[in-house]
Specification:
288 residues; mainly alpha; Heme Oxygenase, Chain A; 65% helix; globular; binds protoporphyrin IX containing FE; metal-binding; oxidoreductase; heme binding; Heme oxygenase 1; metal ion binding
């Protein structure tokens, strides 16, 4: 039987991070956007949005990594050839948004919040940068690989990997071995107990910033689907992160009985009632 590790200073940082983020990891996996994704219910629209957010996030993250590559609080984790996603994401942006992608890539509020925090950490608390690189890169090398296969199938993308460069790490032969190396480098960082505690908290914050991003994207997709198809998309409103099951926003439930138009359109109901009253009064006046 597995026993939880004591969260003491003697515990390796890699173990402490894994243990401390277990709960938020489950929360991230269960965000509606991610749950749908795992079921293969991802649309091109949703995928484009999440990739655009990741483009901004990695741009900020890798800018801060470059700023701190010589700083001993980060230097042992500097693996640009193996890890950096910037160039791959630029190729993905061109694939999804076309040659003028720089003008077309959306930048949502939750993405902006995440980017702001990354710059704050990189500039003012670089000793916490490890929390953000851990959350993103080790995640990409773990569950990210499953998501790649799901997206390829669901979006019917070419086997050549076009549009999915982000998920491909050509300079990492074995993700498992690389993650081991990365963990040992994290464990080699010199940290006071106080910094270590803050780094652990920052990793949880990093997960929460990701979760907020998924929730916002889901909300955007749901709202857009409702605007495009109000009759089908209304009904009990599915809020992002509400934990309710349901089809993805752009799916159109086929073959299901639709609620009557009147019960779905209060304005139309009012107009018809008013017309009926006016007609009744007019007929009364005519009869007099
Ligand atoms: C559908 C969503 C996800 C699935 C299916 C998934 C799945 C996994 C799996 C199978 C592992 C390997 C566990 C192990 O080797 O012990 C893992 C590790 C990890 N995941 Fe996720 N994940 C998801 C979402 C996320 C998200 C959104 C993040 C953060 C943004 C994330 C960050 C991580 C990290 C940092 C690790 C490494 C843990 C460690 O070894 O310390 N994951 N994930």
């Amino acid at each position: 039987m597995e026993h939880p590790q004591p969260s003491s200073v003697s515990q390796d940082l890699s173990e402490a991070l894994k243990e401390a983020t277990k709960e938020v990891h489950t929360q991230a996996e269960n965000a509606e956007f991610m749950r749908n994704f795992q079921k293969g219910q991802v649309t091109r629209e949703g995928f484009k949005l999440v990739m655009a957010s990741l483009y901004h996030v990695y741009k900020a993250l890798e800018e801060e990594i470059e700023r701190n590559k010589g700083n001993p609080v980060y230097a042992p984790l500097y693996f640009p050839e193996e890890l950096h996603r910037g160039p791959a994401l630029e190729r993905d942006m061109a694939f999804w948004y076309g040659p003028r992608w720089q003008e077309a890539v959306p930048y949502t509020q939750a993405t902006e919040r995440y980017v702001r925090r990354l710059h704050e950490v990189g500039r003012r608390e670089p000793e916490l940068l490890v929390a953000h690189t851990y959350t993103r890169y080790l995640g990409d090398l773990s569950g990210g690989q499953v998501l790649k296969k799901i997206a390829q199938k669901a979006l019917d993308l070419p086997g050549s990997g076009e549009g999915l460069a982000f998920f491909t790490f050509p300079n990492i032969a074995s993700a498992t071995k690389f993650k081991q190396l990365y963990r040992s480098r994290m464990n080699s960082l010199e940290m006071t107990p106080e910094v270590r505690e803050r780094a652990i908290e920052e990793a949880k914050t990093s997960f929460l910033l990701n979760i907020q991003l998924f929730e916002e994207l889901q909300e955007l997709l749901t709202r857009k689907a409702e605007a495009q198809s109000p009759v089908q998309a209304q009904g009990p409103r599915r809020r992002a992160g509400s934990g309710t099951q349901g089809p993805t926003p752009t799916e159109t439930p086929r073959g299901k009985p639709q609620p009557s138009v009147l019960s779905q359109a209060p304005l139309l109901r009012w107009v018809l009632t008013l017309s009926f009253l006016v007609a009744t009064v007019a007929m009364g006046l005519y009869a007099m």
